[in-house]
Specification:
By secondary structure, the protein is α/β, with parallel strands linked by helices. It contains 17 helices and 15 strands. The structure holds one RNA strand.
Amino acid sequence: MPIKVFNTLTGGKEDFIPLEKGKVRMYVCGPTVYDLSHIGHARSAVSFDVVYRYLRYSGYDVVYTRNYTDIDDKIINRANKDGVNWKDLAERYIEAYNEDMAALFVEKPTHTPRATETIKEMIDLIGTLIKKGYAYVMDGDVFYSVRKFVGYGKLSGKNIEELESGARVAVDENKDDPLDFALWKKSKANEPSWESPWGQGRPGWHIECSAMCLEKLGETLDIHGGGKDLIFPHHENEIAQSETATGKPFVRYWLHNGFVNIEKEKMSKSLGNILNIRDALKAHTPESVRLFLLSSHYRSPIDYSGDSLKEAEAKAERFYRTVERMEEEWPEILKKKAAAGVVKKRMRPIIEAMDDDFNTAGAIGIIFEEVAGANRMMDGAKKDKLTEELPVVRAVFKEASKFLGVFSSTHEEYFAKRKKMTGLPAKAVERLIKEREEARKKKDFKRADEIRDELKRQGIILEDTDEGTKWTGTSFHF
RNA sequence: GGCGGCGUACCCAAGUGGCUAAGGGAGCAGUCUGCAAAACUGCCAUUCAGCGGUUCAAAUCCGCUCGCCGCCUCCA
């Protein structure tokens, strides 16, 4: 059964068949590095991380490229405002981005080129477009003639006439046509610039992706991804540039992820509700943030709120609690290896969900059926059944975590993170627990309950078990 | 105005032609517990925004109506 993907180009689900058998070339638009990355960047990166992981899991050899836009108006403006060098600024935010991604279990793509490493290729590409008559030089700027490209609008479903009627009147217009976009921008004094046949300048935004795709992946890509907002004009322009230059189809399957809203509102500078990844991670475990992002289909809009993250944390906790119980109550059984055939059979519904346009929400739902099943078995404590089944469940968790990237921590790692999120240092908590234990021994339940209540106010939940009292932190919320 | 999407229980959410409409959270009752917590068990949508149509059969396809959202400008 082939994997089905939703292709923006055709507006429907299609069987995924790469150009070259067994090999996938994929590209995703990365961040413009002028500030800390927000939860929307996280969604795009996590969504396509799952695509990358799952295609490899399915047996494909995947070459995945994700760029950094490290030269852009926003970077220059921000650097000027902060009084720092634009290159240092970009460098700093590339590092921050990588830290955030690592925290969210996002794997490093095969290639992560920077726009500024590909200037020569961009200049060559622009030269080709001019030579073919699709681009023109205007006083040091170079523009692409949108009207010349017959297929313009095929990705976004727009037509040129409507675009023109809706086009705003640009100030200081150098272009032949308002629809034309810049391939190369003449630099002003004190701006970063590169030498080109058209004078000192820097590349436009769209050309960098075309150049990097061509350089790292070739003329035709299997998958090109990004946020829904990039469909127009960014991806539309990439198609125009690339297909004009190569004469070949640029991308076989266009994949676009939906937005993250904050408390039902779109994240935007003007509303001041941009949520940085690191702020999100101060209040929630990375496991829960990633689980939140994967608990809805990647194309749907999702709403980030205190409640939605609380639910995700509850899910993560339920999962890791079950794993903890499996490993602590039945360690000798878990050492047994599950039969590969049985595991494969149990993975089938999960695989079916994933094959259907990477339905992570469906796959996670099935994992929680396994979680309930495992708990039921352990409650029943029928040794024969457990010996047969528990290793299978454990193996299913491990397999699924390979492509979901959640459920891949150990329960120790997860609960250690939770414990760090409380209002008290671990030592103080342990001391109070000890005091409570002594009170309990003396049957002073009033004092014992006082301590438990006090800890609860600090975000700490106690659990009395046969092996003593355990504790965990509940996450704080903004 | 143009293009696209969505509306499934109290909340989140999967399911897009045919077994009892996944899963999580919240809630209620029970087992366990000093009491809790966790886990488990049971309950929690005869129905999928509304209306009409196609079909042996629809949450799923078609039409209309209502409501919400995104893109059309830098944006994940």
